[in-house]
Every structure is written in structure tokens, then in C-alpha cells.
Specification:
alpha+beta; RNA Cap, Translation Initiation Factor Eif4e; 5 helices; 19% helix; 26% strand; globular
Length: 266
């Protein structure tokens, strides 16, 4: 499983400089850091750190994430002229490891979604739309799994989400990753990572060097995007012979397709 990290609390307070390995966090309420149901030697009840997985009613520790994230769901169109805003639904916003697992364990897995459904996991305040002000200058890395029956899509989608919320798809300060998406279609699953830019500085702005790559050279912008693509490919456990493509949202909009010509490939 891909290792993902998130800020851990110190003495009960959030400490963004101290990452916690998400792979050490239980993935179900049955998990825990005990041995045969017993607390580690030397640990008293008074100083025991109890997560939601040990005691869902009386836990005293949460592991905060670096950003708040919002889960969105696109329901299948009814064929009666539904528009995108009617199909796209905001599910919930969370900001801790425990809340993520609480959400994940209580929603349908991607493999059980109806055809033409999507899950979108985006940073809070960013709508999973090309037109969103934080997406309109960006693009996405995407890969289609065409052999649906042999694809462990639930495991792969989980790992992609963990890589996103754990901030392991990019380096600290890159500020590129906006969200991740899984599309369920008749002939394939598509998984993608949306970025803020296409490797160029955003015109007139962004908040400093982090948001929008203001002042970033084209070479540096491309390097950052290529690193994201390579990490994404690793999370998807793809062989080197398989290509993952990056395309700009503007190109996709102009071509009327989500499969616009690739700008970059890893």
C-alpha cells in the first residue's frame, strides 16, 4: 500500500510539521495498536491515546490532515435533460484521518457504483469542474482501466485518495494537486489527478509561488507535473510499459472530450 502522511497532533494539538504515517492507522474499527487486545507495556490508562477506532464514543486523539477535503458524487443522468449541477452532489467535508475512514467505511465502494457515476475528492472550496476558478488553468493526469473484471478498483481508488490527503503526490509547497476522481463507465474505470496548472504560471495571479506557480519557470512547472504523474503511476501499480497521459482542461473543453491530446506522458 502506498505510504501517505498527514500532520499528527503533539500533546493534543495539531502540529503540521510532524507527519504521521497513514499506513499505521487502522482501516476499520476492528483495527488498533494493541497486542492481543492489551495496551503496550508501561502505558497507563491515564496517558493512553485513544483513537476513534479504539473507542468511537470516547476517543481523545484525532490526526489532522494538512488540508480539508470534500467528497463529491456524480449520480448517473436520468436521460431527461439533467444538467451537471443537478447530477453533482456534495457529500461531506472532513479534515482528519479518523473522519476520512468514517466516511470511507460508510459509502458504496467504487466497484458497486452505477454506470456513469463518479466520485470526486477535492480540497475544500474547489468544485470538481473545469470552470472552477482554481481549476480553469489546470489539467489532469488520467489512466483508463479497460479490463474492469480484473481491476481491483476499490483498492486502487483507496490508495489514490490516501496519496492525495496524505500529500504524497507532490512535494510540500508545490500547490498543484486539486483533487482526484474515479469515473465508472460501461467499458472502463478512469482514475485521474487534477492539477492547478499545466506547467505554466497562472496569469495575474494565485497566492504567491504556491498557488498557481506564480513566478515559476515553464521548466520547473513541467518538472513538478511530471513528478506528480510518476507518483500517480506508482500508486496505480502500473508497469513501465503503460502510459499515463496529462491533458489540459481547456483543451478538453475545446475538443468536447475528456480525452484531449496529451501534453505530457509518463
Amino acid at each position: 500500500m502506498a505510504t501517505a502522511t498527514a500532520p499528527a497532533p503533539a500533546s493534543g494539538d495539531a502540529n503540521p510539521s510532524s507527519p504521521v504515517d497513514l499506513s499505521t492507522i487502522p482501516i476499520s474499527p476492528d483495527g488498533g495498536n494493541t497486542v492481543d487486545g492489551k495496551k503496550p507495556s508501561g502505558e497507563s490508562a491515564a496517558d493512553e491515546q485513544i483513537t476513534v477506532f479504539h473507542d468511537k464514543d470516547n476517543f481523545n486523539v484525532k490526526h489532522p490532515l494538512m488540508h480539508k477535503w470534500t467528497l463529491w458524487f456524480t449520480k448517473p443522468p436520468s436521460g431527461k435533460g439533467d444538467n451537471w449541477n443537478e447530477l453533482l452532489k456534495e457529500v461531506i467535508t472532513f479534515n482528519s484521518v479518523e473522519e476520512f475512514w468514517g466516511v470511507y467505511n460508510n459509502i458504496a465502494p467504487a466497484s458497486e457504483l452505477a454506470l456513469k457515476s463518479d466520485y470526486h475528492l477535492f480540497k475544500e472550496g474547489v468544485r470538481p469542474e473545469w470552470e472552477d476558478v482554481q481549476n480553469k488553468h489546470g489539467g489532469k493526469w488520467a489512466y483508463q482501466f479497460k479490463e474492469k473484471r480484473s481491476v481491483p478498483i476499490d483498492e486502487l481508488w483507496l490508495h489514490v485518495m490516501l496519496a492525495a490527503i496524505g500529500e504524497t503526490l507532490e512535494e510540500e509547497g508545490d500547490g498543484e494537486v486539486m483533487g482526484v476522481v474515479v469515473n465508472v463507465r460501461k467499458g472502463f474505470y478512469r482514475v485521474s489527478v487534477w492539477t492547478r496548472t499545466i506547467g505554466k504560471s497562472i496569469p495575474n495571479g494565485g497566492d504567491g509561488d504556491v498557488a498557481g506557480g506564480k513566478g515559476r519557470s515553464v521548466e520547473k512547472g513541467k518538472e513538478i507535473l511530471m513528478n506528480i504523474g510518476r507518483r500517480f503511476k506508482e500508486v496505480l501499480k502500473l508497469p513501465s510499459s503503460e502510459a499515463v497521459d496529462f491533458s489540459g482542461h481547456t483543451d478538453s473543453a475545446h475538443s468536447g472530450s475528456t480525452r484531449a491530446k496529451a501534453k505530457y506522458t509518463v
